[in-house]
Amino acid sequence: MNAFAGTPAYYRRFRPGIPVALATLLDQTAPTGSPRRLLDIGSGPGLVVHALRQYFDDLVAVDAEPGMLTEAEAMLRPTLDAAQRLQLRHALAEDFLPPEAWQPHLVTCGRVFHRLNQPRFLDRLSEYLAPDGVVAVFSDRSLWTAGTPWQQTAREVVQDFLGEQRKAGDGPFSTPGPPYEEVLRASSFSHVTSAVVPVRRQWTISQVLGYLYSTSFAAPHLFGDHRDAFESAVTNALTPLADSGVLTEDNAFTVLTARRPNAHEGR
């Protein structure tokens, strides 16, 4: 079963997306062009494209899960003006090729980068990224790895129901590979810069449950007949930790932007 089976509607509704500061950073990092082109890999329901849409004329969102693309269509299409063009493509990142002569100026890749054959993806990307184009790899801490007391408590409830080992759908979560910066420096995009973008979020308990159901480690189908019991357990565990019903999270996005060395020298 797909690791994100049953999650797309929750993903669209409960994932917080990227902050304005990160969208601004990506806009300022990418080269200009006319038309200016964005490619988002592992787009999910289109949260990154939604945050960046004002900066680009052509937008392509790629995902391997058809349900995610259905949600992306519903989220993105009504927000675009008549001059913008949106394409939704069902493909693996490592296999994707854009339309002939279509060269993106910015390629964004969030947490999905962990799941990719990274060298193969970057090799394929080198075939079509604009000569001065930028690839951006970024992620914040998920609930599984974040450290505030309420997040630790929510994770412990998930483990009580599903076991100590982190899941990715019906299988185990794969262990991390080499650091992303090392992988990028070994590719054609060896000029790498890094930044950290902090973000503060506030959650209700129902939003936390929705977020959990958007993840591969707590997808709804994993709980089977125990889903109601799980929701009650989360609610009971988090209620004492909420301040007037609100749970606060301080997080940060780690952002790596990479380009070809010769493109950097020409800027």
From TrEMBL:
<dbReference type="GO" id="GO:0102208">
    <property type="term" value="F:2-polyprenyl-6-hydroxyphenol methylase activity"/>
</dbReference>
<dbReference type="InterPro" id="IPR029063">
    <property type="entry name" value="SAM-dependent_MTases_sf"/>
</dbReference>
<keyword id="KW-0489">Methyltransferase</keyword>
<protein>
    <submittedName>
        <fullName>Class I SAM-dependent methyltransferase</fullName>
        <ecNumber>2.1.1.222</ecNumber>
        <ecNumber>2.1.1.64</ecNumber>
    </submittedName>
</protein>
<dbReference type="InterPro" id="IPR051052">
    <property type="entry name" value="Diverse_substrate_MTase"/>
</dbReference>
<dbReference type="GO" id="GO:0061542">
    <property type="term" value="F:3-demethylubiquinol 3-O-methyltransferase activity"/>
</dbReference>
<dbReference type="Pfam" id="PF08242">
    <property type="entry name" value="Methyltransf_12"/>
</dbReference>
<dbReference type="GO" id="GO:0032259">
    <property type="term" value="P:methylation"/>
</dbReference>
<keyword id="KW-0808">Transferase</keyword>
<dbReference type="InterPro" id="IPR013217">
    <property type="entry name" value="Methyltransf_12"/>
</dbReference>
<feature type="domain" description="Methyltransferase type 12">
    <location>
        <begin position="39"/>
        <end position="135"/>
    </location>
</feature>
